[in-house]
């Protein structure tokens, strides 16, 4: 039918939208697509484990992926990767998945790149290397912020800070002029992202609701008052428990 994209065209388009591939021309994207292996992931599928020894760079074209570790039988989410970026275990890019798991949070499409393929691409197109530098710098900043949150802030402040981060990365404005986080996060998932137990997250979220900072509509988080949320994110100990 006229106007509909073929599966190949759709894959080329999604690959061209991956951040580090933005400097590539249409012809270069087509060549890259021919070289990379594509993988379809089902929801909750774990496709990388600590036992995987190979250096790989994953280009996430559609879907979302969670990177997490298991510490003392508890999961700690290190990052939630959105479509349009890369992640992986590769010394060349200073990225590390060692000791971690990668799990699809929803049906996802990824392309897999080897170290040799990435080295060749950077030599051929240095702008790709520059894009990787920017990407790693931003991720380092996020990691430093999260480390500060987990070590220095109480559960309430950590949760408020996380919600603000999700707003920056995902939020859309609703017709009620609220900021909606369009992806569903359970209290248990939020807990793995801030190093807290589900019960602690539930109490902290209820506090934010009581203060009018957030609302829960159809299982999705809506931010009603960003200023109040920021106040709690910068808060230090007001009687909330200090440990998870």
What would you note in describing this structure?
This protein is an alpha+beta fold. The chain has 2 domains: 143 residues, Sandwich (Jelly Rolls); 80 residues, Arc Repressor Mutant, subunit A (Orthogonal Bundle), CATH 1.10.10.10. It has 8 helices and 12 strands. The protein has a 4-stranded antiparallel beta sheet. Strands 2-7-4-5 form a 4-stranded antiparallel beta sheet. A 4-stranded antiparallel beta sheet has the order 9-10-12-11. A hairpin with a 5-residue loop joins strand 9 and strand 10. Helix 5 crosses helix 7. The termini are far apart. 28% of the residues are buried. The C terminus is likely disordered.
- State the domain count: 2
| Rg (CA only) | 20 Å
Compressed to H and E, one letter per element, the order equals: HHEEEEEEEEHHHEEHHEEH
| CATH homologous superfamily identity of the largest domain | Jelly Rolls
CATH architecture of the largest domain: Sandwich
Oligomeric state of the chains? single chain
End-to-end Cα distance: 55 Å
Q: What is the CATH topology descriptor of the largest domain? A: Jelly Rolls
| CATH C-level class of the largest domain | Mainly Beta
Average pLDDT score: 89
| Most strands sheet | 4 strands, antiparallel
What labels would you give this structure?
244 residues, alpha+beta, Jelly Rolls, Arc Repressor Mutant, subunit A, 2 domains, 4-stranded antiparallel beta sheet, 12 strands, globular, disordered C terminus
What is the element layout, followed by pairings?
Layout: H1 7-16, H2 26-35, E1 37-41, E2 46-48, E3 56-62, E4 64-71, E5 74-82, E6 85-89, E7 101-104, E8 108-114, H3 115-124, H4 126-152, H5 155-170, E9 172-173, E10 179-180, H6 187-194, H7 198-210, E11 214-217, E12 220-223, H8 226-233
Antiparallel strand pairs: 1-8, 2-7, 3-6, 3-8, 4-5, 4-7, 9-10, 10-12, 11-12
Helix pairs in contact: 1-2, 3-4, 5-6, 5-7, 5-8, 6-7
